[in-house]
Design brief:
The protein is of the alpha+beta class. It has one domain. It is built from five helices and six strands; from the N terminus they run αβαβαββββαα. The protein has a six-stranded antiparallel β-sheet with strand order 1-6-5-4-3-2, sandwiched between helices. β5 and β6 form a beta hairpin. α3 crosses α5. The longest helix has 22 residues. The radius of gyration is 20 Å and the shape is globular. One of its GO terms (cellular component) is plasma membrane. This is FMN-binding protein. InterPro entries: FMN-bd (IPR007329), Ion_transpt_RnfG/RsxG (IPR010209).
Length: 182
């Protein structure tokens, strides 16, 4: 092979790496997110959950989206020696990359707060806007969650909005299926 072909072949991976945009931003770690979604909690205790295939099917049936992992990241939120809620850290896909978020859920299954922990997309980070995230507060699994109807879409962040909305609904279904006390 001539030298120019070899040069082009060897430089292509370097150009690809240089052309790949890096937009990942970590806003909160787990501890910060826990305190943000349930600020009255004084401590958080990891709560191992292992979902059965029947529970995974039940979550999908309720939320209309699948639960991707059978071992979600869950913590009990404690205040005054008593449990006051749950914190679940989850990921959903944006347009191309994962969005890590935390949801605080009350003992009776209402959203207490939603925080974006890591956002890796080049566009659509408006989902971090507190006004938009606060629209989830008070919602339960029985409430409607239709994007553009119940939760407004943000122009330029449609997929992030849809997937976070679906994710919060799924976490409420997870709460109902695996965490709520009868």
């Amino acid at each position: 092979m001539n030298r120019s072909i070899w040069t082009a072949m060897l430089s292509l991976p370097a150009l690809t790496v240089m052309a790949t945009p890096a937009y990942a931003v970590d806003y909160l770690n787990v501890e910060q997110a826990q305190r943000a979604v349930i600020p009255n909690a004084t401590s958080f205790a990891a709560y191992p959950v292992s979902l059965s295939s029947a529970q995974l099917k039940q979550i999908k049936s309720i939320a209309h989206v699948p639960q991707r992992t059978d071992k979600p990241s869950v913590w009990k939120a404690i205040a005054g020696g008593k449990q006051v809620g749950w914190v679940i850290v989850d990921e959903v896909i944006g347009k191309h990359e994962m969005i890590t978020y935390a949801t605080g859920i009350s003992m009776d299954g209402h959203v207490l707060g939603v925080e974006i922990m890591s956002y890796r997309e080049s566009k659509g980070s408006q989902v971090r806007n507190a006004k938009w995230r606060n629209l989830f507060r008070g919602k339960s699994v029985s409430d409607p969650f239709k994007l553009n109807k119940d939760i407004p879409n943000i122009s330029g962040a449609t997929l992030s909005c849809r997937n976070i909305t679906d994710g919060v609904k799924r976490l409420l279904a997870l709460h109902q299926v695996a965490l709520a006390k009868p």
